[in-house]
Amino acid sequence: MTEWSYTVKFWAIRKRDYRKPYQLRWFVGTSSHSESFLTSGLAKSREAQLITAANAGEPFDVESGLPKSLVVKERDISWYEHARNYIDMKWDDSPGSTRRTLAEAMATVTPALVKDTKGMPDVRAVRTALYSWAFNKNRWEDDIPADVAKVLDWFERKSLPTSALSERMLVRATLKALSKKLDGKTAAPGTIRRKRAIFHNSLEYAVDAELLTENPLTRIKWKAPEQVEEEVDPACVPNPGQASKLLAAVREQSPRGRRLVAFFGCMYYAAARPAEVIGLRLSDCDLPRRGWGMLRIRETRPRSGSAWTDSGEPHEKRGLKHRPRKAVRPVPIPPELVALLRWHVTAYGTAPDGRLFQTQRGGLIQDTGYGEVWAVARSRALTPAEYGSTLAKRPYDLRHTAVSTWLSSGVEPQLVAKRAGHSVAVLLRVYAKFLSDGDDAANAKISERLGRHA
Fold it and tell me: What domains does the chain contain, in order, with CATH numbers?
């Protein structure tokens, strides 16, 4: 750990009978330091450099006797090397999905931090090499394909030093790069926010590693490109009648479809996320013969991809999204879903670990598999015009149907947010358009109230 001190004292330059006769002497804290020079001019120039740093309020390294700015310069490494060090630091404590996000952010900003673009490979080749190899620690010990190695070698040679990020215009250029997609179009607001946050964190790590004296992002006034607020498009959300037809179309398919109808039902009736349904166990379900039941959602099985997980499996076992690891979200479920789940358990039993949903071979439900079933259900349940639109394009849209149904039914937003696993702020922002259905009723109530005092 570097020890810093603001106590710096200089002695007069003295001349001695040595090969380098002019000696500069100074103290940092209680440690003495000296440097010798061939000429008096060189000694005075060095003295002026150190005095300027001291007068500017820079801390000095007690061991080397140098101001922080010079220590940083001596320790400087390329941005490419620092980005890999950052990935290495974050890797072990990050789930697979986070690892992918970290790699994506570093792969986005790194091409903006090069000395020049002469000889830079194709943009897609660059993204593949950086995202899939340079910033995927699981592949660091693998044999790198020749074409990928060529791209990475180019970045090793062309990468700017990390200290170059002390220049504000370079930081601005990097922020601009992270706001764009591969095709040059502006990325989604959420994507920009995530990448900027990771970039900020990587610069904090550079400060900790004493490669930068401060995080340059704190000095930059930058606003992400304006875009429409993130909301659910009502055109994507099936109404209850359409959702019922879609579930029926799932049931009428092959045995694989019948095995999945309750899976989709959990999204429609309980607003569960697909990754939450995949890990749902029978022990977490109250399924009475009559009346409402209860799901206790306590884990997710997100698909990160086998290249990003420690186990080599495509799915990971994690707690609820944005919640403490042992958090549980209770969700009351209507008799329709209770009956559907009871039928499912009778027909298919459970997996050895108690999971409700499994493939015919007992494995985890895969997004590719249930995606194919859903695509067929859309083609059978929807009209040609509906099928050609964005209506129910994804199974996730069933979750939107559940939340919008609760809201339009007059359920308090706080309770809807609790059941859906949102904060109230996110709920109101994302589902803002579904609250407008109550305007007429609200206006009538206001008019009635005002009429009492007319």
Answer: 4-71 (no CATH), 79-219 (no CATH), 234-438 (1.10.443.10)
